[in-house]
C-alpha cells in the first residue's frame, strides 16, 4: 500500500518530522495518481532517443562471411554502417517450436547484464540446417512443418515463415538499435582512457574493422546520455547510453495481449499517438485507469492471436522497458472495415511491436504456438508454472490496514463464526510490528502472538503477517545489524549503503540479487528466529518494487549498485527475488515439507513459481471493479495465474451495492481477499445491514462449495502452465467474437462467469461461445446454446455463471468454518450433459498443504458419462493416497428420466440407487451412491 493522506494518520506512523512533511507535501490531498511523479517517454532520455529513430533507415547489415553454423546454433556479426560497431547475433532453435535470438556487442568494454534466475533451466536446443545461401542472405530450416528462418543481409532482417506464410519478422521496420558501451569523450585524458588508447584495437568500444570500413561519422552526445535529471533526482549514468531496441512485425494479427501490469483492457491498444506501454516496477498511488503507465509488476511477454495461430514474444530484460504497439488497422471506422470487406482490401492486417530497454542485451524468445495450449506450454518451459498453493489459500481472506491488536483479531474471528461465514486467513499489516521492524510484534498490541496463532489454529484457520523488504536502520535491530555486518545492503554509486525513506523512516534495502542475502532472509523465517511465529503464519511482501518514498518515481535511484551491476539493470527483478526468498524461507522452516503461501505486489516473469499477486492500491469505484478483470486476465496470459484485487477497493468506502458486486466478481477469481486502507470505515462482511450480510455470506459460502474445482484447476495449471482465469478465445481460438471480450471469463474450460460491474444494473449481456456448445445456468439449470449473446436479467443477488455442457464439476456442499474443516467431507458431482449426452471431468485429492504430491501421494481420477454409464477411472495408477471422502450425490443436468439406476462399486457389488427427476429443468439427482471418492465405480442409467 501507499502512504496515507492525512497528517494525523502520518503521526500514527511514528515517523520523523521530515518524513511527515514529505508525505504531506507529495501525497496529501491527492485524490488520484500524481502523474508528474512518473516519467513519460519524453522525460525518459533513452525512450525519447529510441522513439526518434525513423522506420526504414536501419544502419545494420549482416556480415555473412562471419557466419558459423553448428548443429544447434548460428552466429554471425552485424555491423552498424554509421559507427562501424559490430554486434554478435546468436540464433537458436529450441525444443517445443521456439526460436531464441540474442544480440550483444561483439567486444563490449565490459560485460553487459544478462538476466539470471528467471529461466528455470537453459532451454534445450534442436538441430537447424542450412537450406540455401547467397550474397543477399541465408535460409535455415527449423524442421517443423516447413518452418524456415530467412536472414536477409542488407539491411539485417529475420523472417520466420511456414510454407508461404510469414509468421513473424524481426527488424522489418529497421528499428534495431544497440547503444554500445563507450568512453565518455570528456574523460579521454584520464589514465584509464589513455590505457585504452594504447590497447589492442580489438578490445576497443568500437571494435577493429577492416580499413575500408573505418570511415565513420561522429556520434553526437545528446542530453541525458551521460547524466539525467528528473525533478531533483540526478542519475549519474556512469556507463553512458546503453539502450537497446528491436521491432517485431506480426502479419495477419490484430489482437495482442499481455505485458502486464497495466490498468487497461486485455487487448493492447495502439500507442502511436501517446506513450508506449511502460514496464518499470513502481509504487503508484491510486493508479489511473486505461493508461499505459507502469504499475507494480512487469512481465515482458506479449501474446498475439488470430483465428489461425497463437504466437508470443518473451523479451528477457529486467531494465526499464517501453513497448510500442502499432497496427495498420487501428483507427479504422466500422464503415471503413465494411468497405474493405465489400470491395476486397489488399491490405493484410498487421501489428508491429517494438521493445525499447534501457540496458542489458537483446534476448528474445519467439514462441510459435500454434495453438494457445502450445503457447502456454512453451512459455512454462522457459519460466515455470504457477506454484501449487495450499488449498486454504484458495478460500476467503479477511484483511485491513490494520487490525488493531490481538483482541481485535479475536473479535473479527469470532464475528465470522457468529454470522456463519467461512474464512481461512486473517491478515496483519505493518502496524502489528514493533516500530516497523519486520519479523517482530508490537509488544503492547500483540504481546502473545503464539496464543493468538494457536487460537486460530484450533479453529483450523491461519494468519498472514506482512514482511516488507525495507529494513529500519537502527543499531539495536538484529536484522539490520546482521545485514550491515555482512555488507549485504544495496550500495549507492559511491559505495556506501543506499538509504531511503519508507515506513520505518530511514531505511536500508537488502540486496536480494545476492544469494547470500537471500539465504540470510530465508533463515529469518525459522521458528527460533521469527519469534512468535507458527506453522499457520504465512507472509505478505508489500512495497517490493522496491518502494522508496523519497526516491525518483517513488523507487530506487538507478545508479545504486548491486555488486557489479547497477540498479537500472536489475530493477524489475527485485520484487521477484524478495518473493523467492520469502517462499524459500517458509519452505525451509518446515524442513521442506509444507507448501508456502506468499503474496507479493511486485513481480516479474517467473514470479508465478513463488506465490500470488494482486492488483495493488485500487479505489472503491465501479471502474476499478471493472478493470480488475482485464488486469488479472492479462497477468494470467503472462503466467501470473494466482491473481485477485482488493474487494471493495483499498482506498475510500464502497457503497453496499458496489461491495456486494465486488464480492461476487472476486469470488470467481483465483485470489479472494477483502482489504482496505486504515482511514476507511471498517467493512467486515456483517457491517452492512442484514440483507447485505446475507448476500455476502451466500457469496463466500458458494466459493467454498467450489474449492475442489479450484484446487483441481491449480493442480492442472501447475502441471501445464495453462491459465485458470482465462479469456474466452483460449478455448475458442477460431471464434473472432471472443477476441476482445474481457468483461467475462472462463475458469478452466468449464465455468463461464460474467460479473455485474455496472451500478444499478438490471441486466447484462453475456456471450456464450461455441456454436456446438450448450451452457447451463448453475443456479437455474436453464439450458442455452453457445455462439450467441444472451440477455440476462439480474438482481443484486445475481452473478451470471454457466457450466459448459459436457463437463463434470466436483463440489462440496457442506460448508464449514474453513477449508481444513471440510477436508474429509463428501463430494457432489455436477454433470452437465453435452448435445451428445456425454460429459467428462476430474477429481484431484491430496493432503492439501504438503509437497507429498510430488511423491505420488494423491488421487487423480477421471469421471465420465457416455452411453448412459458414469464411470470413475484412475488417471494415476502409480500414485498412492487414501481419503475417507465419498460421493454423496450426483446431479445430472440436461438429463432424461431413467427407469432404474444401478451402481457397481469396487469389488463388483451391485445395488440400485434412489433418484429424483425434475422434468421442469431436466435434472436427475442420484442420492447417496456411497462410493469412496478414490475408488473405481460405475453407474448405469437404464
TrEMBL record:
Residues 90-324 form the Glycoside hydrolase family 31 N-terminal domain. Pathway: Glycan metabolism; N-glycan metabolism. Residues 187-199 have a biased composition (Basic and acidic residues). It comes from the Eukaryota. Keywords: Endoplasmic reticulum, Glycoprotein, Glycosidase, Golgi apparatus, Hydrolase, Signal. GO terms for biological process: carbohydrate metabolic process; N-glycan processing. It is found in: Endoplasmic reticulum; Golgi apparatus. Transmembrane segments: none annotated. Its EC number is 3.2.1.207. Residues 187-224 are annotated as: Disordered. It catalyses: N(4)-(alpha-D-Glc-(1->3)-alpha-D-Man-(1->2)-alpha-D-Man-(1->2)-alpha-D-Man-(1->3)-[alpha-D-Man-(1->2)-alpha-D-Man-(1->3)-[alpha-D-Man-(1->2)-alpha-D-Man-(1->6)]-alpha-D-Man-(1->6)]-beta-D-Man-(1->4)-beta-D-GlcNAc-(1->4)-beta-D-GlcNAc)-L-asparaginyl-[protein] + H2O = N(4)-(alpha-D-Man-(1->2)-alpha-D-Man-(1->2)-alpha-D-Man-(1->3)-[alpha-D-Man-(1->2)-alpha-D-Man-(1->3)-[alpha-D-Man-(1->2)-alpha-D-Man-(1->6)]-alpha-D-Man-(1->6)]-beta-D-Man-(1->4)-beta-D-GlcNAc-(1->4)-beta-D-GlcNAc)-L-asparaginyl-[protein] (N-glucan mannose isomer 9A1,2,3B1,2,3) + beta-D-glucose; N(4)-(alpha-D-Glc-(1->3)-alpha-D-Glc-(1->3)-alpha-D-Man-(1->2)-alpha-D-Man-(1->2)-alpha-D-Man-(1->3)-[alpha-D-Man-(1->2)-alpha-D-Man-(1->3)-[alpha-D-Man-(1->2)-alpha-D-Man-(1->6)]-alpha-D-Man-(1->6)]-beta-D-Man-(1->4)-beta-D-GlcNAc-(1->4)-beta-D-GlcNAc)-L-asparaginyl-[protein] + H2O = N(4)-(alpha-D-Glc-(1->3)-alpha-D-Man-(1->2)-alpha-D-Man-(1->2)-alpha-D-Man-(1->3)-[alpha-D-Man-(1->2)-alpha-D-Man-(1->3)-[alpha-D-Man-(1->2)-alpha-D-Man-(1->6)]-alpha-D-Man-(1->6)]-beta-D-Man-(1->4)-beta-D-GlcNAc-(1->4)-beta-D-GlcNAc)-L-asparaginyl-[protein] + beta-D-glucose. Residues 388-712 form the Glycoside hydrolase family 31 TIM barrel domain. GO terms for cellular component: glucosidase II complex; Golgi apparatus. Residues 721-809 form the Glycosyl hydrolase family 31 C-terminal domain. GO terms for molecular function: carbohydrate binding; Glc2Man9GlcNAc2 oligosaccharide glucosidase activity; glucan 1,3-alpha-glucosidase activity. This is Neutral alpha-glucosidase AB. It comes from Tetraodon nigroviridis.
Amino acid at each position: 500500500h501507499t502512504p496515507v493522506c492525512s497528517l494525523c494518520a502520518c503521526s500514527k506512523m511514528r515517523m520523523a518530522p521530515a518524513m511527515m512533511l514529505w508525505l504531506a507535501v507529495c501525497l496529501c490531498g491527492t485524490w488520484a495518481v500524481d502523474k508528474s511523479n512518473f516519467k513519460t517517454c519524453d522525460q525518459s532520455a533513452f525512450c525519447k532517443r529510441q522513439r526518434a529513430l525513423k522506420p526504414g533507415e536501419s544502419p545494420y547489415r549482416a556480415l555473412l562471411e562471419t557466419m558459423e553454423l553448428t548443429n544447434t546454433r548460428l552466429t554471425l556479426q552485424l555491423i552498424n554502417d554509421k559507427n562501424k560497431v559490430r554486434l554478435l547475433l546468436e540464433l537458436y532453435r529450441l525444443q517445443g517450436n521456439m526460436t531464441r535470438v540474442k544480440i550483444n556487442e561483439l567486444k563490449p568494454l565490459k560485460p553487459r547484464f544478462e538476466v539470471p534466475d528467471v529461466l528455470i533451466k537453459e532451454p534445450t536446443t534442436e538441430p537447424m540446417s542450412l537450406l540455401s545461401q547467397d550474397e543477399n542472405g541465408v535460409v535455415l530450416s527449423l524442421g517443423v512443418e516447413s518452418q524456415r528462418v530467412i536472414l536477409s543481409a542488407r539491411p539485417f532482417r529475420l523472417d520466420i515463415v511456414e510454407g508461404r506464410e510469414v509468421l513473424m519478422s524481426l527488424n522489418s521496420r529497421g528499428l534495431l538499435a544497440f547503444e554500445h558501451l563507450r568512453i565518455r569523450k570528456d574523460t579521454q585524458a584520464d589514465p584509464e582512457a589513455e590505457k585504452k588508447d594504447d590497447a589492442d584495437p580489438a578490445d576497443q568500444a568500437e571494435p577493429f574493422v577492416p580499413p575500408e570500413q573505418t570511415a565513420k561519422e561522429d556520434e553526437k552526445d545528446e542530453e541525458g546520455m551521460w547524466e539525467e535529471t528528473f525533478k531533483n533526482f540526478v542519475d549519474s549514468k556512469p556507463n553512458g547510453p546503453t539502450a537497446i531496441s528491436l521491432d517485431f512485425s506480426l502479419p495477419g494479427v490484430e489482437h495482442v495481449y499481455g505485458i502486464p501490469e497495466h490498468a487497461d483492457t486485455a487487448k493492447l491498444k495502439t500507442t502511436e499517438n501517446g506513450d508506449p506501454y511502460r514496464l518499470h516496477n513502481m509504487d503508484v498511488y491510486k493508479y489511473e485507469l486505461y493508461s499505459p503507465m507502469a504499475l507494480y509488476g512487469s512481465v515482458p511477454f506479449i501474446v498475439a492471436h488470430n483465428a489461425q495461430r497463437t504466437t508470443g514474444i518473451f523479451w528477457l530484460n529486467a531494465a526499464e522497458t517501453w513497448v510500442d504497439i502499432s497496427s495498420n488497422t487501428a483507427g479504422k471506422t466500422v464503415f471503413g472495415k465494411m468497405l474493405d470487406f465489400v470491395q476486397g482490401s489488399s491490405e493484410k492486417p498487421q501489428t508491429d511491436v517494438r521493445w525499447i530497454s534501457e540496458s542489458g542485451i537483446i534476448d528474445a524468445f519467439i514462441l510459435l504456438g500454434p495453438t494457445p495450449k502450445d503457447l502456454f506450454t512453451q512459455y512454462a518451459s522457459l519460466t515455470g508454472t504457477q506454484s501449487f498453493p495450499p488449498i486454504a489459500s484458495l478460500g476467503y481472506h479477511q484483511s485491513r490496514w490494520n487490525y488493531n491488536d490481538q483482541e481485535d483479531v479475536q473479535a473479527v474471528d469470532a464475528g465470522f463464526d457468529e454470522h456463519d461465514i467461512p474464512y481461512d486467513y486473517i491478515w496483519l499489516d505493518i502496524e502489528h510490528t514493533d516500530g516497523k521492524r519486520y519479523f517482530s510484534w508490537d509488544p503492547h498490541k500483540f504481546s502473545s502472538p503464539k496464543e493468538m496463532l494457536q487460537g486460530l489454529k484450533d479453529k483450523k484457520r491461519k494468519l498472514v503477517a506482512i514482511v516488507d523488504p525495507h529494513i529500519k536502520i537502527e543499531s539495536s535491530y538484529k536484522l539490520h545489524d546482521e545485514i550491515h555486518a555482512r555488507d549485504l545492503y544495496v550500495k549507492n554509486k559511491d559505495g556506501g549503503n543506499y538509504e531511503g525513506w519508507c515506513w520505518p523512516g530511514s531505511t536500508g534495502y537488502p540486496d536480494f540479487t545476492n544469494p547470500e542475502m537471500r539465504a540470510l532472509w530465508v533463515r529469518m523465517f525459522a521458528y527460533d528466529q521469527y519469534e512468535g511465529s507458527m506453522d499457520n503464519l504465512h507472509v505478505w511482501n508489500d512495497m517490493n518494487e522496491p518502494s522508496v518514498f523519497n526516491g525518483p518515481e517513488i523507487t530506487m535511484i538507478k545508479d545504486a549498485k548491486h555488486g557489479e551491476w547497477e540498479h537500472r539493470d536489475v530493477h524489475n527483478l527485485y520484487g521477484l527475488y524478495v518473493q523467492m526468498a520469502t517462499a524459500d524461507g517458509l519452505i525451509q522452516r518446515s524442513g521442506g515439507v509444507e507448501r508456502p503461501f506468499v503474496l507479493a505486489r511486485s513481480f516479474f516473469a517467473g514470479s508465478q513459481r513463488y506465490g500470488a499477486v494482486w492488483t495493488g492500491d485500487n479505489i472503491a469505484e465501479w471502474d476499478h471493479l471493472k478493470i480488475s478483470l482485464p488486469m488479472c486476465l492479462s497477468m494470467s496470459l503472462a503466467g501470473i495465474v494466482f491473481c485477485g484485487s482488493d474487494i471493495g477497493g483499498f482506498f475510500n468506502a464502497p457503497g453496499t451495492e458496489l461491495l456486494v458486486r465486488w464480492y461476487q466478481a472476486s469470488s470467481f477469481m483465483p485470489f479472494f481477499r477483502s482489504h482496505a486502507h486504515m482511514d476507511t470505515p471498517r467493512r467486515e462482511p456483517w457491517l452492512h445491514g442484514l440483507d447485505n450480510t446475507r448476500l455476502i455470506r451466500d457469496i463466500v459460502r458458494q466459493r467454498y462449495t467450489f474449492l475442489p474445482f479450484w484446487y483441481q484447476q491449480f493442480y492442472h495449471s501447475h502441471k501445464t502452465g495453462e491459465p485458470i482465469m482465462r479469456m474466452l478465445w483460449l478455448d475458442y481460438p477460431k471464434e473472432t467474437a471472443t477476441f476482445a471480450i474481457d468483461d467475462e471469463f472462463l475458469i478452466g474450460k468449464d465455468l463461464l462467469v460474467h460479473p455485474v460491474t455496472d451500478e444499478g444494473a438490471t441486466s447484462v449481456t453475456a456471450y456464450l461461445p461455441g456454436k456446438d456448445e450448450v451452457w447451463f445456468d448453475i443456479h437455474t439449470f436453464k439450458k442455452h446454446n453457445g455462439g450467441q449473446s444472451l440477455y440476462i436479467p439480474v438482481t443484486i443477488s445475481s452473478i451470471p455463471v454457466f457450466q459448459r455442457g459436457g463437463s463434470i464439476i466436483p463440489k462440496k456442499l457442506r460448508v464449514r468454518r474453513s477449508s481444513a474443516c471440510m477436508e474429509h467431507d463428501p463430494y457432489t458431482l455436477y454433470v452437465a450433459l453435452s448435445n451428445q449426452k456425454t460429459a467428462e471431468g476430474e477429481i484431484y485429492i491430496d493432503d492439501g498443504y504438503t509437497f507429498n504430491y510430488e511423491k505420488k501421494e494423491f488421487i487423480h481420477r477421471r469421471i465420465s458419462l457416455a452411453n448412459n454409464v458414469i464411470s470413475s477411472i484412475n488417471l494415476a495408477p502409480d500414485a498412492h493416497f487414501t481419503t475417507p471422502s465419498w460421493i454423496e450425490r450426483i446431479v445430472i443436468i440436461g438429463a432424461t428420466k431413467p427407469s432404474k439406476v444401478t451402481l457397481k462399486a469396487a469389488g463388483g457389488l451391485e445395488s440400485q440407487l434412489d433418484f429424483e427427476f425434475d422434468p421442469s429443468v431436466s435434472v436427475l439427482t442420484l442420492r447417496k451412491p456411497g462410493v469412496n471418492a478414490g475408488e473405481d465405480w460405475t453407474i448405469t442409467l437404464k
